[in-house]
Amino acid sequence: MLSAIDDVILPSRSRLVNIDKSQIHDKLPHLIPRKRASPQQNPLPVPETSPLPPPPDPASLTFCEPSRRILSPRDLELFQASPTYDLVLSFVFSLSQAATDKKLSFVGIEEIPDAVRQILSILSSIEGTIQRCPPADQGGSRFGNSAFRDFLDSIYIQSPSWHSSLALPSPAAISEVSTYLHNSFGNRTRIDYGSGHELNFIIWLLCLNRLSKLPPSTFPALALLVFPRYIYLMRKTQSTYYLEPAGSHGVWGLDDYHFLPFLFGASQLLHHPYIRPLSIHNELILEEEGDEYLYLNMVRETMASKSVKGLKWTQPMLDDISGAKNWEKVEQGMRRMFVKEVLGKLPVMQHFLFGSLVPAAEGMSREIEVGVKPEAEEKEGGEVVIGEGGAKHVHRDDAWGDCCGIKIPSTVAANQEARKQGEEEGLRRIPFD
């Protein structure tokens, strides 16, 4: 009885022996080892830090009023193939490299070079100008405050005396160099601010480097003292005058206003023993280390300015970057982004100014030749196209960041107005009034 049941459940030994092994082989599925998907390679190479060329002989320069020269896609291509493009990249990446593995407190007060002290004094004077030019009452509006124009006018008046303290070679040199400082705080007509204005501040420092006032030995102080001081000054300016984001990338950008703090900040954290890219989600680390590292400081300020908690909802690009394996990957990505999203974007670079210290390439357009108004007088930002009838603004429909024709109130302004009205922290809409 048992043997019969066994034959039903299990084949008999004789039946197993008679099975053709080749039939079993054909019926069994073949085991094919899975190949791991190769990681996607970024087609853009990591930009290297090329040596900074020596400063030119001031006697060989003919100082002039800086003006815009990138007014068409062809002008941008000429710029990207020029020595000036390499000069800007070399200077920015040299500053970033000077911040590698260093806290903001790395440079001691007694170690600050005299030229850097003068620059810090200028920035302090500009902060004092904010106190003397209070914002006008505009009935709770979140858009740019008209008192910002008085602030810029005051800077323009005080600028010659500030630059005289830097011992520049001539009044013509002061006029050229100071133009970059004037354009570092936002646009007077549109009352907005963006990465192009931030770049103007860096070019101001570059001009002083070209005049041998800021040699490479000062680069750590520039990256860890001067530039953070400028960022803090801009935060006060933005919150006081409600500067609108110039071509804001909205929620898919790193920040409504700035880019370079993320590049310099990633360099600071390059080989940190315990802070990882994912640490930006740890509020305790942001609170304890945010005063020493620009990247963490920017994330902390960005989170504080939003009405919804969580980078996943407010700044998804920062959230995505936090998944990087290490800070080296983040720093490399920031270099690529600077090349592509700042120096490679026509709407941004159409506001770039060229003079004798930062010369334009041969064949680039001139404002007067194509009928474009000077930067300070232009009412609309963004991209322009040069045609037979002169220059016309181009409204782009593929991204907020590519068109300045639509006014966008800042989240900073929304927070400030909410505090004035005594609103509680929590979810809030930003009215487009």
Largest sheet: 2 strands, antiparallel
Q: Report strand order across the widest sheet.
A: 1-4
Structural class: mainly alpha
Overall pLDDT, averaged? Answer: 84
Query: How far apart are the first and last residues' alpha carbons, in Å?
Result: 91 Å
Number of strands: 6
Percent range of helical residues: 40-55%
Low-confidence stretches: 397-405, 427-433
What's the shape? globular
Radius of gyration based on Cα positions: 28 Å
The proportion of strand residues reads under 5%
**N-to-C series of helices and strands:** HHHEHHHHHEHHEHHHHHHHEHEEH
Tell me the number of helical segments per DSSP (H or I, 4 or more residues long): 19
List keywords for this structure.
single chain; 433 residues; mainly alpha; two-stranded antiparallel ribbon; two-stranded parallel ribbon; 6 strands
In short, what is this structure?
The protein is mostly helical and 433 residues long. The protein has helices at 2-9, 13-18, 21-27, 73-80, 83-98, 114-132, 147-164, 171-182, 195-210, 219-241, 260-268, 283-289, 294-305, 311-314, 316-321, 327-342, 346-349, 367-370, 411-420; strands at residues 67-68, 192-193, 244-245, 353-354, 383-387, 390-394. It has 19 helices and 6 strands.
